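The records we work with from here on pair a chain with its fold. The integers have meaning only within a learned vocabulary of local backbone shapes. A complete example follows; check for yourself that the lines match position by position.

:::
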Amino acid sequence: MTLITHHSSPITAFIALGSNLEDPVAQVRSGLRALAGLPRTRLTGASSLYRNPAVGMGEQPDFVNAVASIETCLAPRALLEALLAIEHEHGRVRDFPNAPRTLDLDIVLYGEAVIDEPGLTVPHPRMLARAFVLVPLAEIAPQATVPGAGSAAGLAARVDAKGLVRLSSAGVT
């Protein structure tokens, strides 16, 4: 079996970024810069930064989230591995599900692909219930289509965004 690591023509993908440890705003901005540095990849957009309460495990600090658009020739699995490496470089520790984290990077859309493999599900399986993904996605790509669900703008208009606060532009340089 041959593992496909890249495509000859770029695919538009959307990456959700989040942090709630060690200066979350700086972590998300650093994550955006790291995305821009990926091989065979170009950062094409970044949403504003948003603050929202943590979802999941008990009391923990609020998150800062954003969504980035990239054009990449990396295949989905190669992109995932690159994102995991960026998380590791930022001190991400996976103690338990929904644990506080320095940086979380998720592939939410990869072109119009629907992928269901061990460790890789695209569209992201919980994005439809997460304002902190849908609102920033709709900000930078309202026309983006979530396979089987609709446009980012339409989905963002229907999601419960209570508690989501726009902070500022991503300010990536």
